[in-house]
Amino acid sequence: MARGPRGDQEFVALSDLALRSVIGPNSRHIALVENAFDVLIESPGGGVTITGSARERAEARRAVLALGERAEAGIILTETDVRATLSLSAGGKPGAANQGLISGRRGPIAPKTEAQAAYLQMLERCDLTFGVGPAGTGKTFLAAAYGATLLLKGQVDRLVITRPAVEAGERLGFLPGDLNEKVDPYLAPIWEALDQIIGADAVRRRRDKGEIEVAPLAFMRGRTLAHAFVIVDEAQNTSRLQMKMVLTRLGEGARMVVTGDPSQVDLLNPRDSGLSHAIRLLRGVEGVGVSTFTAEDVVRHPLVARIVRAYDADAEARRPKPDLEDS
Prior knowledge:
Blueprint: E1 3-6, E2 9-13, H1 16-23, H2 28-37, E3 40-42, E4 47-51, H3 54-72, H4 79-90, E5 102-104, E6 107-109, H5 114-125, E7 128-132, H6 139-152, E8 158-163, H7 179-183, H8 188-198, H9 200-208, E9 212-216, E10 228-232, H10 240-247, E11 255-260, H11 274-282, E12 288-292, H12 302-318
Parallel strand pairs: 7-11, 7-12, 8-9, 8-10, 10-11
Antiparallel strand pairs: 1-2, 2-4, 3-4, 5-6
C-alpha cells in the first residue's frame, strides 16, 4: 500500500478489499476515523485521500493502514475493531493489533487491543497464564480460541474446560440432564468461542471423542491432566483450596490459563477467593504469566467500558480510608 503526500493532503493506496472494509457500511468506519483525528477522508478510487494537519494525517494514515492490513488478513471488520485500531494508532503503536493471529473457521481472529496482543504472547510463552480483568475484555474468548488452535494443530491431545458452579453451590443435581447438560449453561461464552473457531458440528464430534471435555471444578480433584490445554474460567469464585487443587492438576505437556474478574466474587466470603491469592503467590514464578485488563480494554459496546469505570469508581469511593489520627 504505497502512499505519497500532497501538501496538506495525503493519498493512501488500498486494494479493493481493504478499501471496502476501511470505508465500512454506509461509510461508518471512515466516519469514525475522521472524527477520531479531525481529518477529512475521501475515496477517489484506489485508496483514500486524507486532508488535515501533518500530525492528524499521520495518525489517520496509521489507522487506515492498520485497518487495511487486518482486512487483507481476512478479518471482517466491525465497529469494535475500528475503535480498537483507532486507539492503538493514536497511541503511536501501529501493528500491535495485528500480532498473534489465530486461524478460525471464519478467518483469522486477531487481538483487538494492545492488552489482548500481550495476552496472546503470554499464552504462547507461559505454561500457566492468569488473565484478569472486567467482563468484555476478551480474556475467556481468546483463551478458548488459543486452546482450540492448539488442539487443531495437534499440539495438545485435549481441551479441558472447568469452572466453579458457585451459582448452583457446586450442587448440580437439581438441574435436568446429564453432566454436560448441567454444566453447559455456565460455559456459554466458551462454547460460543469454540463454535466460531472450529464450528458447532466439529465441537460436538470432538466432545464425543473426549478431545473436548467440560466439568465442574469439583470433578478435577485427584486427576492429572497431561498433554492438555486447561481453561479455568470464572476463577474469582474458587476458594484458595480449590485454586491450589486445580493448579496442581497440571501434568506432562499440559498448559493452563486461569481467567476471572476479582471485582465479581460471588463467594459468601469474598476474601477467600483463590484468584487474587494465587496471583500474589505466583507472580514472578518461572513459567507463570499474569495479564491484566482494564475498562479501557473492553471490546463490547462502548457503554460497557463506561459502566465498568462507574462501578470501579464507586468501589474505590466505598473502600475504607485509613484513620490518619491513628497513624
